[in-house]
Amino acid sequence: MLMAHPTVLRNLVEQYEALRVLHAENGGQEARQRMDDVAYTLCVSTGTRDVDSALVAARHRLPGARPEDDSVLSA
């Protein structure tokens, strides 16, 4: 399986989280579609089938990840 570069994964995670907040605040269709697109890309990039699993997998591949508690150390 091809692995996405950590920089790409970090960018996708940040985009998804920002879009989730935007969608929660104003619920626009455009934000929802973009969020779905980023979620799909995260799933493909991590080899997962749902966005929650994709987010966990992406975070585990980022520098500073601590597998024992699913957190990421700040740099």
Question: What key phrases describe this protein's structure?
Answer:
75 residues, two-stranded antiparallel sheet
Mind explaining what this structure looks like?
The protein is mainly alpha-helical and 75 residues long. It has one domain. The protein is 65% helix and 5% strand. It is built from 3 helices and 2 strands. It has a two-stranded antiparallel sheet. Helix 1 runs antiparallel to helix 2 and helix 2 crosses helix 3. The radius of gyration is 13 Å and the shape is globular. InterPro entries: DUF5133. This is DUF5133 domain-containing protein. Pfam families: DUF5133 (PF17196).
Question: What's the SSE blueprint?
Answer:
Elements: H1 6-26, H2 29-46, H3 51-60, E1 65-66, E2 71-72
Antiparallel strand pairs: 1-2
Helix pairs in contact: 1-2, 2-3
Short overview:
The protein is mainly alpha-helical. The chain has helices at 6-26, 29-46, 51-60, and strands at 65-66, 71-72. The model has no long low-confidence stretch (mean pLDDT 84).
| Overall 3D shape | globular
**Can you tell me the number of structural domains?**
1
State the helix count: 3
Alpha-beta classification: mainly alpha
Annotation, overall tally of beta strands = 2
* Uncertain spans: none
Largest sheet: 2 strands, antiparallel
Q: What's the alpha carbon Rg, rounded to whole Å? A: 13 Å
- Percent of residues in beta strands: 5-15%
Task: Report the average pLDDT across residues.
Answer: 84
N- to C-terminal separation?
Answer: 28 Å
Amount of helix = 55-70%
Topology order in helix (H) and strand (E) letters: HHHEE
Strand order of the largest sheet: 1-2
